[in-house]
Specification:
alpha/beta, Nucleotidyltransferase, domain 5, Rossmann fold, six-stranded mixed beta sheet, four-stranded parallel beta sheet, 10 strands, 52% helix, nucleic acid binding
Length: 693
């Protein structure tokens, strides 16, 4: 707004006998103020707000103000959002009669203006005198969960009431139609966004955001634990990829003393084994005897300790027979050190923080199985040429805090990552570092300060070797290798034994199998690095990669949001793009009208930008599985645009050159330029907005 206009507005107020009534009269008679953005009405209103601050005698009180407040209340539900705060301030609506305000909001609600009623309630802080379930139900039906969060944000008691209500709706016997029936004619009603799965996700988000005890929501927690239980049963009895000890650890921590879950466990066990087997597992998992069916209870009485010893021995023999198929640590067991005290850790740092040192770095954490929050690192592995150090991170951090020196461990970790003279090797380092930051807030900027790192995930994308499908055929029953295990197989000849990957890494003491697995995960990085560095040509690696292996790839881009190591993206220098894996060849120029794409759901901004340029775009919805992009691409002849981990999955499901990965950290315009350049799409002036209504 020009200075001249502002001055003219202020002179106008000075001439008015009653500026507050004058502003209302102007807004009521003007159609301009209802538009979005900074309209003339908005400019005049905000200038009056500033003018009143400079002229404290102007604000009115008494009957005259009440009449003005009544008039302005009638306007608030129709005015743009940016006018709400100035008008509430100018007409002192916080001082108005509370019952009158509540009655007005209730009237808005009864008219079906649910969003407007909620926004006004938030602005006037009316929530404590309202029914949270009544106010929030229609908003949830209209997929306005963010507004619901804002509605309860400052009121812990309302947060608890809302969570208890949502948890009641998630009870298996509850008919969710009882909630939706009164709102059948609701405008913008989205029934597909109102189901137990969506509500369950919302509950977990609110529990985390408001730091509320999850015991408040037993139905949602039990259902999540039940899904974990079914997942674990599949791992043990269907896929057969989890060891007995590993499985039992997770079952005990998932089921615990919960009798409802214990009942489900026993019924599930009977589907997978006979009564004797179910009894043995029930005993192993400490299920209450009264929870057992009669046949299982009878078998439990017959069980002797010798039977269990024989079973474990058989399992151990089976494990030993598998070892010859997997990568083995080339260093003696006594060279693996499990560190729980600061004195032991200091000796480790003296060896690790040496100029010219090459260190394999890995981290382990307890699998979250979809629970709230980022995983916290339970074990930090540092591998040198002759020994491996396993740092018990929770114990060391707890010890340092008790001694009033909680910064000393983060200090050493930052020294390691920021020292360009020490080469750090990792696999999916971004994921590891985001978990490290969640474990210790002092390490949140570690990734920005990193130097001298080599992320072998980026290298993995360029190593020539057996495809996962080929390796699966060769080994028959074993699960196809993936991730680091597949890279180890390509480079060193045998895959990693990943049976301990889903261990409970927080449980102490660690089992011997866990210690060997953790040491192998870090040490194999050293062997891969050495092998690729000596002989890159054997794996079809170019000189640019040799440079990165030599430690010149010192800086990494900022981390993307990670859930686990397997989802870690490669560095932006690699970008996972088509040209890296497909031969680049000049293509004939095409127009946007001839170019059809399907955008993965993390690239909706890119999709909308390309549509503005005339490209034929289909967008995946937020809840769609990434694989839906491949279905659409095959059916409609579209190119897939994606980013990060889904690229590896999707490109194998479509023809060569029909899947392209863009850099998620760039803005939509830069992403669009990247796509247009790669596919040689020539945009003319006539194409712009040609698809827009």
């Amino acid at each position: 707004v020009s200075r001249q206009l502002k001055e003219e507005i202020r002179r106008g107020f000075a001439r008015l006998e009653d500026p507050l009534a004058g502003l209302l009269a102007m807004l009521e008679s003007s159609s301009d103020w209802k538009g979005k953005g900074h309209s003339l009405g908005y400019c005049i209103t905000t200038e009056l707000q500033l003018w009143i601050k400079a002229h404290p005698a102007v604000p009115q009180s008494g009957t005259k103000l009440k009449k003005l407040q009544a008039r302005v209340l009638g306007m608030l539900s129709q005015c743009p959002a940016n006018l709400l705060d100035p008008l509430i301030s100018i007409y002192q609506l916080h001082t108005a009669d509370r019952n009158y305000l509540l009655e007005h909001v209730s009237h808005l609600f009864l008219q079906g203006n649910y969003k407007e009623a909620a926004i006004l309630s938030i602005k006037l802080k009316l929530q404590p005198d309202q029914d949270v379930e009544k106010m929030c139900t229609p908003l949830l039906l209209q997929d306005k969960a963010n507004l619901v969060e804002e509605y309860v944000a400052e009121y812990p008691e309302l947060q608890r009431k809302l969570l208890q209500t949502l948890d009641t709706w998630c009870e298996p016997s509850f008919d969710i139609r009882d909630i939706t029936r009164p709102y059948q004619g609701l405008s913008k009603y989205k029934p597909e966004k109102f189901n137990r799965r969506v509500l369950s996700k919302l509950v977990f988000r609110l529990l985390e955001r408001f730091n509320v005890d999850s015991a408040l929501c037993p139905n949602v927690i039990n259902q999540r634990h039940l899904r974990t239980l079914n997942y674990l049963l599949g791992k043990r009895f269907v896929e057969k990829t989890m060891t007995e000890e590993n499985w039992a650890d997770h079952i005990q921590s998932t089921v615990g003393e919960n009798r409802w879950l214990q009942g489900h466990l026993v019924q599930s066990l009977l589907r997978h084994c006979d009564a004797r087997g179910a009894a043995r597992w029930a005993q192993h998992c400490r299920v209450s005897p009264e929870m057992l069916p009669q046949a299982v209870a009878e078998e439990l009485q017959k069980l002797h300790i010798q039977d269990r010893v024989e079973e474990v021995t058989k399992a151990d023999n089976y494990e030993a027979s598998k070892k010859k198929d997997y990568y083995q640590l080339p260093i003696p067991r006594e060279n693996i050190h499990f560190l729980q005290t600061w004195e032991e850790t200091l000796q480790c740092w003296e060896k690790v923080l040496q100029p010219g040192q090459v260190v394999g770095v890995d981290m382990e954490w307890k699998p979250s199985f979809g629970m709230v929050g980022k995983p916290r690192v339970a074990l930090l592995q540092l591998a040198l040429k002759d020994e491996v150090f396993l740092l018990d991170l929770p114990r060391l951090l707890e010890q340092a805090e008790a001694e009033g020196e909680k910064e000393k461990l983060p200090h050493f970790i930052q020294m390691l990552y920021s020292d360009a003279a020490i080469t750090k090797l990792g696999y999916g380092m971004s994921g590891d570092l985001s978990s490290l930051a969640a474990t210790c807030s002092a390490l949140k900027d570690t990734e920005k300060q990193m130097q001298g790192v080599v992320d072998l995930l980026a290298v993995d994308k360029q190593v020539d070797g057996l495809s996962p499908e080929h390796s699966h055929e060769e080994r028959g029953v074993r699960q196809p290798e993936k991730g680091l295990s597949l890279l180890v197989q390509h480079v060193l000849g045998k895959p990693l034994d990943k049976t301990e990957q889903l261990s409970n890494w927080e449980k102490r003491p660690l089992r011997e199998e866990q210690i060997l697995y953790a040491a192998s995960d870090a040490y194999c990085l050293l062997e891969i690095y050495e092998r690729l560095f000596k002989d890159p040509e054997s794996f079809s690696l170019g000189s640019d990669l040799t440079d990165s292996l030599a430690g010149k790839q010192s800086k990494k881009p900022r981390a993307k949001k990670q859930l686990n190591k397997q989802e870690a993206p490669s560095p932006s220098e690699q970008k996972c793009q088509g040209p890296r894996t497909e031969p680049s060849r000049p293509t004939a120029p095409i127009s946007p009208q001839e170019f059809s794409v399907v955008c993965d759901n993390m690239l909706q901004g890119l999709g909308r930008y390309l549509r503005c340029l005339g490209v034929d775009v289909r967008l995946l919805d937020n809840e769609d599985d990434h694989r839906k992009a491949a279905e659409i691409a095959r059916q409609e002849g579209r190119v897939i645009l994606t980013s990060g981990l889904p690229y590896q999955t999707l490109r194998s499901q479509v023809g060569e050159g029909r899947c392209f990965s863009v850099n998620c950290s760039e803005k939509a315009k830069e992403q669009a330029l990247q796509v247009l350049k790669h596919f040689n799409v020539q945009v003319s002036l006539g194409d712009i907005f040609s698809r827009c209504q």
